[in-house]
Amino acid sequence: xxxxxxxxxxxxxxxxxxxxxxxxxxxxxxxxxxxxxxxxxxxxxxxxxxxxxxxxxxxxxxxxxxxxxxxxxxxxxxxxxxxxxxxxxxxxxxxxxxxxxxxxxxxxxxxxxxxxxxxxxxxxxxxxxxxxxxxxxxxxxxxxxxxxxxxxxxxxxxxxxxxxxxxxxxxxxxxxxxxxxxxxxxxxxxxxxxxxxxxxxxxxxxxxxxxxxxxxxxxxxxxxxxxxxxxxxxxxxxxxxxxxxxxxxxxxxxxxxxxxxxxxxxxxxxxxxxxxxxxxxxxxx
Length: 285
Description:
globular; mainly alpha; 17 helices; 285 residues
């Protein structure tokens, strides 16, 4: 249908169909992209067409296609603006392609374009997700303005790279800067506590979520807490936590519970967790 519209010069209709595909999460293959790019070019100039199409790729999580299109833009002499640079760095972060991200960063510095808040946040994210925490820190320290996303990226980044205590330090600095944590920040924070064995800190952060910040814990937060208590051998505490859950446990929670039971050889509780994971509601005793 999209190809037919493009051949008939019906660019707007083709774009409408493409939007419908995107909204319905339909798979977009290598045959669809050229047709969509052609219809973009029917209704706008090539620079704007490629920029708009690039944005569609990133929004559709087609990160590899987005990077390919970025390279084509450069070959054609189309120099991307800050919006495209930020999106490209985000794609690099998701794919953890550090060298490509470094090249984009270097080209951006050479371009003479002024940095932007979105570019800086994307740079911090890219370096943190690729494990280059020192580079992420350099960009972070150069930023005049930081929001919860900026702080959260470092909190999560340090936590996932085994530097839990430093992750908690960033959280303290964030609070001192009057920036309130969000749902994702607490996932990184509890993950850091879990892998560093910081039970008291983890429990304190978990309780502060709803009491202080009005954030209801999700399955990911409960999974981190169960993992933390399980790693520390606090089976009684995590059974109580499981029974007090205000939401239905999902596979993430049961996986954390099963892992703890396996480590401590608790066959009975492990069997109950397995039953719950299969859809049977079972209360832990």
